[in-house]
Model the fold of this input.
Amino acid sequence: MAYDTILYDVSDRILTITLNRPERLNAFTEQMRVEMTDALDRADADDDVRAIIVTGAGRGYCAGADLEKGGDTFNYKEDDAKQAWNRDGGGRLTLRIFEVNKPIIAAVNGPAVGIGVTMQLPMDIRIASESARFGFVFARRGIVPEACSTWFLPRIVGISKALEWAYSGRVFSAQEALEGGLVSQVVPDAELLPTARAIATEIAQNTSALSVTLIRHMMWKLLGADHPMEAHKLDSRGVQSLGRGPDAKEGVSSFLEKRPANFTGKPSTDLPEYFPWWSEREFS
Done:
């Protein structure tokens, strides 16, 4: 697929997806959703991609849904005779991000409101520049939060902070996002991408891709577990399965021999038989 609304660049085993509508502060469109989904599919199929960074072109990350349709922006027409409402496009994107097999980092370089912030929630690490701004503005637009954010946001920042931000719909600073736990770092604007790339490089150069893929899904999928025994059962399967494989042997040997590891496992072909272990879930 040729991309018109995003840029796709792989360098040093790191994929950078850049939202690329700078003339509209990278406002989100259905075309952008389709292109981002395709980019994630490409990344999952490419074992040379070890980590993903998502950022924005120009002075914004993503200003939310493109409102050029005016008051009818959110007045969706039913496109399926079997249901009386349409699927939220932002939710379709965040669900795809949730299932991605590579670690994914948001490098937030400017305003990020509406879908611009909710798309970040299923990403693993969020870093903001000092000029970044965030806003869960839905109540000020007469709608409700989308993109599965009512599931993700309370798990990330807690129910009280999530409701405060969603009730008010106000736009807040990167520093407040840091204090509330939405982002893990705030850095000067010029240091944003180097900081994100340093984290991605640490992953790409020093870890087993199989381990990282399983860790990502174990952490996210166990958020809904009702007892630590669920984690114990999953941990045990993972250690047993990977422990007999070449990456585990290489990890131990390289440590004892005091040399960099050369992991060869490929998520596209070498994940254990029990993956994916969670139940198939379909929209209905």
